[in-house]
Design brief:
Number of strands: 10
Shape: globular
Distance between the termini: 35 Å
Largest sheet: 8 strands, mixed
Helix content: 25-40%
Oligomer: single chain
CATH class: Alpha Beta
CATH superfamily: Zn peptidases
Number of domains: 1
Strand content: 25-35%
Length: about 280
């Protein structure tokens, strides 16, 4: 397999690298996105994992950390690009949206935007540096403090029916018992979410993994993650040859026995909208 080049950094086949993706310069510091790139030893599709497009949904950071830790690139066919914190400014404030009084504060409603607000520049960097490498997408969205989510969603109303069917196959392959068919183009989300934009512009199938929550203590949070199936790898495998066969990839249980840290004693309230 040839090397993978992301944001002007070369990742050799069979290796892992942390890649810095510059977004913009704030008043006192640069704003960057960091991507863990796992380049498989042999050829295959590229799976992009996004986390924390909303800054108050940080539980999935622990999931992606465990995924990257467990995967051996020498046994991987294809590549995985994992972005634990896609929206650093919102993470810093602990809010769903960026607190900059922009016209479009929600980074998961601004893909394909024409403006230069911070919430536009972040999806633009993801688009230009990551989506062009991507064959399949999983966007993680967990619930806010004191609540939890429990479903895997796919977009059912893409204009290209093949993209919709591949997305549905990914959702089913994830292995979670609740699968939710979204109609984002006839609802409030539209084509400017990560899934809507990637599926319509690039024909990239994708799902939202909405599993987990915050504020329940280490024991309960560990159970939420420990009960989840090894979904990301099976979604990847199940779409590799469109027949649901996974004989040529080794299953990886990314979520089992993951221990979340004890959360701080405050509520991270969102600044706008709802989850997803």
């Amino acid at each position: 397999m040839s090397e993978l080049r992301v944001a002007d950094q070369t990742v050799k086949a069979g290796s892992k690298e942390l890649v810095r993706i510059p977004v913009t310069q704030d008043l006192v510091m640069s704003v960057d996105i960091y991507a863990h790139v796992v380049a498989g030893k042999t050829d295959g599709p590229t799976l992009l994992l996004l986390s924390m497009l909303h800054g108050n949904e940080w539980f999935s950071v622990l999931i992606l950390r465990e995924i990257v830790r467990r995967i051996d690139p020498s046994n991987l066919a294809g590549n995985i690009i994992a972005v634990p914190v896609a929206n650093p400014p919102a993470m810093v404030t602990g809010t769903r949206c960026i607190l900059d009084d922009s016209d479009e504060p929600d980074a998961n409603r601004t893909f394909g935007g024409i403006y230069d607000w911070m919430s536009n520049q972040i999806p633009r960097a993801i688009d230009e540096e990551l989506l062009r490498h991507t064959d399949y997408l999983i966007d993680y969205h967990v619930s806010d403090w004191g609540s939890t989510m429990a479903d895997v969603s796919y977009t059912a109303d893409y204009s290209d029916r093949e993209v919709a069917e591949k997305s549905r196959a990914m959702a089913r392959a994830y292995g979670f018992p609740v699968v939710h068919a979204l109609r984002i183009f006839s609802g409030l989300r539209g084509s400017r979410t990560s899934l809507g934009y990637a599926g319509e512009k690039y024909k990239i199938p994708g799902i939202v993994a909405g599993i987990g929550g915050l504020g329940f203590g280490e024991e309960q949070e560990a159970k939420v993650v420990g009960d989840e199936r090894p979904g990301h790898s099976r979604s990847h495998e199940g779409t590799k040859n469109d027949r649901g066969s996974s004989e040529d990839l080794r299953p990886v249980p990314p979520h089992s026995r993951l221990l979340a840290g004890q959360p701080a004693g405050r509520r991270l309230s969102g600044a706008c909208g709802w989850t997803g």
